[in-house]
Structure formats: C-alpha cells, structure tokens
Amino acid sequence: MFYREAGIFKTSYAADQALFRIPFDRIFVISVVLFAALVIPVIGNEYWLGSILIPTLIMAIATIGLNILLGYCGQLSLGTGAFMAAGAFMGYKIATAFPWMPIWAVVILGGICAAMIGVAFGLPSLRIKGFYLAVTTLAAQFFLLWLFQKVPWFVNYSISGVPTAPPREMFGYLVTGAEASVEARYLFILAFTVILALIAANLVRGRIGRTWMAIRDMDIAAELIGIKPLPTKLSAFAVSSFYCGVAGVLWAFCYINTVEATAFDIFRSFTVLFMVIIGGLGSILGCFLGAFFIFLLPIFLNSAPGWVGLEVPTELISHVEFMVFGALIVFFLIVEPHGLARLWAITKEKLRLWPFPY
Amino acid sequence: MNFRSVTMTVAAAAVGLVGLAGAAQAEGQFIPNLVYKTGPYAPSGTPTAHGFADYLAMINHRDGGINGVEIIYEECETGYKTDRGVECYDRVKNQHGGATVINPWSTGITYALIEKATADKIPLLSMGYGRTSAADGRVFPYVFNFPSTYWNQMTAVIKYIAEQEGGYDKLKGQNLGFIYLDHPYGKEPIPTLDILAEKYGFTYDKYPVPPAAMTEQKSIWLQVRRSRPAYMIMWGWGAMNSTAINEASNVKYPMDKFIGNWWSAAEPDVIPAGDGAVGYKGATFNGVGTDFKVYEDINALYDAGKGSWNREEIGGVLYSRGMAAAAYVVEAIRTAQGQYGNRVITGEEMRWGMENLNVTAERVEELGMTGLMPPVAITCDNHEGQDPAIKIQQWNGKAWEIKTDWIKADTALTRPLIEQDADQYAKENSITPRSCS
Question: Is residue A12 domain-resident?
Fold first, then answer.
C-alpha cells in the first residue's frame, strides 16, 4: 500500500534521478524534517533539546562522516575522535583569530582544516588495508590529541588548556556559547545536519560515490575499470574528515561550550564506529538510527528506573546500564547484522504489501 | 511473533516510556549531586558522594530539614566524563522545582558548566577544585571554590617544602618533580609553579600522566629514579594516585619527600600500596576519622538504617570532605533563609547565601565539626574565602596523621594572578566585571 513503485510514472530525467522517487517516501522525509524544524523547538523542553537532540544530531553528522569512509569506501578508521578534535580546535583558532567571521564559515573552515589533516593521515591507505589501516588511523587519534594538549598555541595559551567557545551570532540570534538559547542552537545544528545529510546522500549515489563503492567491493577490479585508487581513497578521507570536523566544531561550540581534547578521546571514535555498525554500513538513514540508538540507550537505561518509581542506587544503575547496553549490541548484531537501516528496509518491504501480504 | 517483532515492540515501548519523563514534583529544597561511582575515578568519587549524601540525610533525619524545609537529594552518575556531566546538569537543573546548587566534583565538568550555570542562575560549588580564577567574584558571580584553590594550595605546599629544608633560600638550585593528571585539573597549578620556581630559584620537571593510561606509570618513575628530584608533588585523582604511590615505592623513592595535593591523599590511594606507602604525605583542608561530635548524629542515622554506605567505611579523608561540602551547602541555605525567610530558596537566592556565607569557628563548633572543616568567610569579590590554608598529613600505614598546623597560602602572590586571569576571561567573553564596593 505504501512505498509502491507501481503506478508512478516518471516523465522526465529529473524525476527519474530524484533522491526520493516514490512520492510517499518524499512526503515522509520532508514532513520529518519540517516536524524537526518547526514543531520540535516548540514542544521540546530544554533538557530534550539541549542534552538529547543537540548531541545526537552532532553525532549523526560524525557518523555520516565515518560511514562514508567505512561503509561506502571500505576504509576502516579509528581516528574519528581526532578528526573531530581537529575541527574543534581549528574552529576555535579561526573564530578567535577572525572575530568578524560568520559562525557558519567558521564551522565550514574548521571542517576543511580537518579534511586536510584527514587526507594526510589517509595517505597510508594506499598501501595498507583492513585492520592494519585501523592501526595507522589509531596513530592519528593519539598523535593529534597529544598535539592539541601539548602545544598551547592551539588553545590561545589558556592556562587550563580548556578555553571557552566564544559566543557568536547568526541572524541576530546567539547560536554558540552558554548564553545562546537552546532553540537557536538546535536549529543551527539541524540546518547543518539536514544540508550535510542531503549532500552525502547525493554524493554516494553519484559518480564519486560509485567509485568509492567500487574500491570497497574490490579494489583491483576497480582499478581495472579505470578508477584511480589515489584520488578515490583520499577523497573519501577528505569528505569523511570534513564531516567529522564539522561535528567537532559543533560539539565544542554548541554543546559543551569548551574546547577540550578529552571530549574527543578514543572512546569517542569507538562510539561513532558502533553507531555506524549498529545503524548500518553504507546507509545515510542508518547513521541517524545508529546515533539515536547508541546515544539515547544509555541515558534511557539510566533514567528509566526513576520514571517507574524505582529507587536504585546510581552506581548500580550505571553498572546495569553497561551490561544491558553491551548485551543489546550483541543481540542486535546477531539478529540483524546489517544494522537498523536493514530493519527499516524490511519494514518498508512489509508496508508495500500491507495489508495483503503474500 | 518472531524475534524481530519482539525487538520492534520493545523499541516502541521504550519510546513510549521516554514520554513519561519529568513528572513527579515534590516540595522541598532540591540539592542534586553529580557523582561518579563507576569507572577509573570511582575509588575517589564514591566516598565523596557518600559523605555528601549522609550529611544531608542526617539533617533531614535529625532536624527534619533546614528550618523545616526538607532536603530532596538526588544523584546523577557522570563517570567523570564532561559530556555526561553536562547532560546530568541539564537533567537535574529543573527537577523538583529547580536545583539549589550544583556540585560537579570534576574540574573538567566545572569548566563546561560555568557559563551554563551563570546563564541559568544556579550557583556552582567547586569546593577546592575547578577554575582557580573563579575565586574572583566580580567576574564569576555564580561560581564558588572555597575553602582554597589549587594555586594557593601549590604556594602552601612549596612553603611546607621550604620549611622542611630550612627556609626559602634553601630551595635555590633544587630540582623538584611534578606528576599530574594530564587533564584540566592537573594542569591548573602549573602557572603558579612556574612563578614560584622563578621566584625561589628552583627548577622542576613535569611528568604528565595521560588519563587513558593512568595505571601505566613505569616509564615515568624510571625517569624519576634517574633524575632523583628532591621532592615529588602530585596532582592526581582516581586510580592514578594508588598507581603512582605503588610505583614510587617500587623505585624506592623516599616517601616522606612525596607530597600529594588534597585530592591525592586518601585511604583508597595508599592502601593498595601496602607498607610501601608508609610515610607518604598529602595536603588536606579537612580532618579525618570519626572522633567528631557530628558523628553522634551520623551514627544515629546509620542506627536508623538510613545511611547510604557501609558503616565500617565512613570517616575517611574523602568521606569527610564530602560531608564538609554538604555542611557548607546547608550553612549557605541557612544564610539565604535568614535573608529571604524559612522557605524553599531559589538558585539566585542561594547565590546570595553563598556570597554572604560566614561560617565562623564558633559555628563550626556548634556543628560539631571543629577540625573536620575550616571556617570560611565569603565576600562579593573573594569566592575562595579569607586566609586559605592547608595542613600536611602523613600516612602511617593505618591512618592519616595530621603533621602540621595550618600552613597559610601566599595569597599576595596568587591574588594578582587570579585577577589577571579573570580579567582576561571577562575580556574574551565580553563580561563587564560587577562592582563589589
């Protein structure tokens, strides 16, 4: 009934090449975005917007970044946290060195700096594959964090090494810093998320995305059909690091308000990797599902006993949280190794035949 | 119903439950606490949280609250992680009619919350940690860090070393070692140490311990063995402390020349090192043990079965410090009630209470905590209290012994630095420092 291709006639190339070719799909996505942009800021309270949706959307951007590299181009990276840190620190340097610069430009420049660093650390991928590449990106993780903590220039010689993100305005509204209203920060991040997700969705189904997938599926065959591994792999690293860098700037400027290296440690890299795997490799929708699942589940497990009126000691809740979280990840990987995106695809298949399945 | 539909049902139920969040409001003075009883910092975080909780529970149990206003206490687990701390802050700040005061118990979390709490008009009490320059109340109206700061603590530790050596002139040409957690917390006193080194003509080596590998300090202590610093000063926390003390005794570093700051000298830090830890020294601003009058009431609490912990474990260094923090909070609420009436006070009123807090020696005696917590007087421009001072305690293998009287910090040296840093912060964030005169 829903998601049926039958009866939908495309009369132009543009219609045939549209991102969402099924009207139901298109209406659904547009209404979700409109809901997120217009309704959620009105109905959401400060806790939901500020502590749940803002970090989740930022993590979704980072997850799209890693998914481009891992899910589409097949290059395993454990340096996500470092590329986020690169974006955050360079964004901070740019914002403080050029106070007149609009904040959206700071975010994008921070991402571009991260992209350049990502390309440098992506160079070994031409010779090194699989787990060995993961180890070299691990070097990026440790080296970059060490660098940002070691060289006081990156934090403008702040004594504690944890400078505060400077407040910046957009359309007359503060969007960064603690004074900024949570709605303004949320909409600012939502705009970035939607635009970046659209760009990613179009990138991966175009020429560049197809070359990435060719390299992922079999690099020798890809070379034989005329795809150069060097620009392909490096472009994947660049785009991926750009996304991670943007996520890093937003994390520091719009969420925790301080530029702190420990916020981007190796656990951050692993978290993003889990989001990609749980969400679904090679799926933009999966990035959002994975980010929501991994970010919300611990908070849900932590607060759930309180809602049903159970008085449980906090340390016990935390330990239970770790166990349930681990168990659920294992459970999901067994039941659906292709991630939440695959579950969604199955649901779509079912909806197509509903209510008369055969 | 197959496996997959089970998962879908569970997911749907989860989403439904989330919607129920934020119900249940009760009348009372809400004091949340950001704690960490899990993870690598749990050995330090657990006793602190229990001391804090027990003191508040005792006030409720003995007096039925503060002047008749019952305390509502709730914990939120941060794991010492800054992002979880921010999430916890947002979660608790509007519960039960709004948080009275926030205790982040982490320098990193304090840094992330300074602007948020100021915007939300909720005071932050970072007792003996956090941003040192927050002692300047003109720029940081909502942040309090009494009874002393890291910078002042460092001057007092150097003063103690000078006394041991026979005067500041004996420090000239000496080489000290500073081992610290490579985290905002550990880096905080470095500028002061630089100035002290220059002033008194000594040098020092830095030994940063990365948080991710804080239980691997072999190579650091091999370096220490080679360079043989005259004294080692430690700014450590959590599992780093016991590892450092263990490794120090392994390389036969003289323990009486090894001095930890007040977060690096508690029972969980020295007990794992066994006999090797005997002689280790640490700074403190609170007493230890259960020989204080206030423990009559704490024991009554445990007799009533309302204590939060195991009875045998209470009375340690960090437990006492948690109690001291809670006692300051309660006294500040009393001060605010004196101004605004005996009712539930708001965060803004609490700020007034903290800024006019004057816990005299007589008041400490009335609380039955003489020796357990120092008297403190806060003013508008000074949020760390007058005459910050520390005592040096030493581990004798069974208990901590206080070895010195109060060692006064060199505030003449640190106050201009505090004001300079606060002014720079004010300039960067376009804050006009308020007038305190």
Answer: no
